[in-house]
């Protein structure tokens, strides 16, 4: 069986960043999958489900309401390994092209106050598993340590 693309990335050197994970073509449309890596994999603890769940709700809300990008958002959700998120966007895109979008999303998450969108029992299958304070902390850390001074090393997978 052929190894899938994400398993060919050397996780021993992978750092937080925004990476093109894959590009899929559906007739005339390209869908670009981005790896939003938030932790130093296999070197620090993974994120807990409550804060991941909150980031997912807030991130999806931001992306699906973004004036420029909302019609190109296919999916936003967590990685099973709990070290980051995938965002799938319509178009043949590069990491550089979405830095502003992702930075804006994490500013929104960091600064969000109030009731978490979609976190009521009639809206979510696990509405109690939320942690807004930790979502704020993780968004702030990702902004400060990765997004504010992002460079080539954190935009393209290293060998």
Radius of gyration: 15 Å
Beta content comes to 15-25%
Q: Specify the structural class.
A: alpha+beta
Distance between the termini: 23 Å
Tally of helical segments? 3
Strand order of the largest sheet: 1-2-4-3
Mean pLDDT: 95
Instruction: Give a quick account of the main beta sheet: strands, pairing sense, barrel closure.
Output: 4 strands, antiparallel
Question: What is the percent of helical residues?
Answer: 25-40%
Q: How many runs of DSSP E, i.e. beta strands?
A: 4
Produce the secondary structure layout.
Layout (H helix, E strand, L loop, with lengths): L16 E10 L2 E9 L11 H17 L7 E6 L5 E7 L8 H13 L20 H16 L12
Antiparallel strand pairs: 1-2, 2-4, 3-4
Helix pairs in contact: 1-2, 1-3, 2-3
Question: Your description of this structure?
Answer:
- This protein has 159 residues and is α+β, with helices and mostly antiparallel strands.
- The protein contains three helices and four strands.
- β1 and β2 form a beta hairpin.
- α2 (99-111) packs antiparallel against α3 (132-147).
- The longest helix has 17 residues, at 49-65.
- The chain is globular.
- The model has no long low-confidence stretch (mean pLDDT 95).
